[in-house]
Amino acid sequence: MSMIFALMGGWACLVLPVAAPGGDMTVAADESVVISKSDQTRYWFPGVMQMDSSTLIVSIARSPDEINPDATQPVYTCSKDGGRTWTEPQPWKESGNSWIRLKSGSCLWLSYLLMYQGESVARCRVGRSQNGLDYAWADGTVDVSPNKFDKAAKGTASIVIHRSILEAADGTLLATMYGRFAGDSLDRSILTSSTDGGITWKYLSTIGYDPNIGGEGLNEPCVVKLANGNLFCFMRNQSGKPMCSARSTDGGKTWSPPKRMPEDYAALSVDPDLLLLSNGALACSAGRPNCSLMLNPDGTGETWAKPVTIFTGPTTSYTAIREVEPGRLFYLHDVVPAGWNEPKKGEFHEIRGVSLTVKR
Questions:
Q1: Strand order of the sheet with strand 270-276?
Q2: Which of 198, 62, 176, 195 is CA-nearest to residue 124?
Q3: How high is the pLDDT of residue 3?
Q4: In whole angstroms, what separates CA 73 from the centre of its chain?
Q5: Which residues lie below 8 Å from residue 82, measured CB to CB, with a gap of 6+?
Q6: I want to staple 231 with a disulfide (CB 3.0 to 4.6 A). Which of 76, 92, 248, 274 is the partner?
Q7: How far is CA 81 from CA 27, 310, 325, 355, in A?
Q8: Torsions phi, psi of 264, nearest 5?
Q9: How many folded domains does the chain comprise?
Q10: What pLDDT is attached to residue 142?
Q11: Taking Cα atoms as reference points, which of 218, 239, 219, 246 lies closest to residue 302?
């Protein structure tokens, strides 16, 4: 179906007709805000943590895109006005984008890398905070029995923690991870659970694995809980190729076979972020070659509008979204003119935020 472009009061408005329950929706994009920039080092792969409707915390990676536990050197910046203005960046101890504000109001953060301890056990880092900024870190464990890890570069395990942490009604925590078990030929996405507040994680299920799917396999999972209580997941397969989805009707114990999005959605291929909006729609940010957004009006994850391009230009296409007000999204992305290389003097890498208004 066609997509109509118009300008309304200086805002770019995109009308997205979708043949699905929920009807047409509009996305209006405000001017982007430069959150932080640097010409001294890599400055990319941003993540966002939301304390409340006004308080956002953005983490920024400054190390090369490699498996190296000694090279992580992230910084953070904070906004108290929903993403309009930001503090000067400050150093942070650990990196990773797996974070949740629990029902208790405290925050839980998990490190990206796992350190190999044994054939089925690895060490993770667990951060806890009351204000979202100051974390007390402790060692945790990830046990993938009856599966086994391979030992990877620099003493790491062959699985990493990525993106989603969910809290069930009984306090059980679920976290998404991806990588390869011993014997795997391609990446798989898995779900782990913790019943002790995030210190000990145990393998619960494989969200998606297909040795014949090609590309990288199924990685970079993001899981969201739908209004009906089911879990829905998008996974990366390969840069420039459509993502794959899976869903669970039993709290993550079992998953439907991976289902690939149509070729029309190849513009959303890496690092999806999923968000169930207050108006009932489901939103997904992702990208490559650009940074894009797509909407599922009825919140089931079944029928999606055609992607809307939010940013074109040099970017990793790693994005994140949060709803800061009903119908208003904060969309986060990077700008990397040096690509995967170290920027030259005067060649700034930037982290940007865009305010999007989503209406039916």
A1: 270-276, 282-287, 291-296, 308-311
A2: 198
A3: 32
A4: 19
A5: 53, 54, 56, 324, 325, 328, 330, 355
A6: 248
A7: 21, 22, 11, 12
A8: -60, -15
A9: 1
A10: 98
A11: 246
Give the pLDDT of residue 26: 87
What was the pLDDT predicted at 23? Answer: 60
In angstroms, the Cα distances linking 103 to 218, 228, 335 are: 30, 19, 34
Q: What is the pLDDT of residue 311?
A: 95
The CATH number of whichever domain residue 94 belongs to comes to 2.120.10.10
Give the domain range for residue 199.
Answer: 4-359
Tokens of 252: 């993550």
Q: What parts of the chain have a pLDDT lower than 50? A: 1-22
**What does the pLDDT look like over 58-105, one tens digit per residue?**
999 999 999 988 888 899 999 999 999 999 999 998 888 999 999 999
Mode of pairing for the β-strands spanning 136-143 and 200-208: parallel
Question: What is the pTM for the complete model shown?
Answer: 0.93
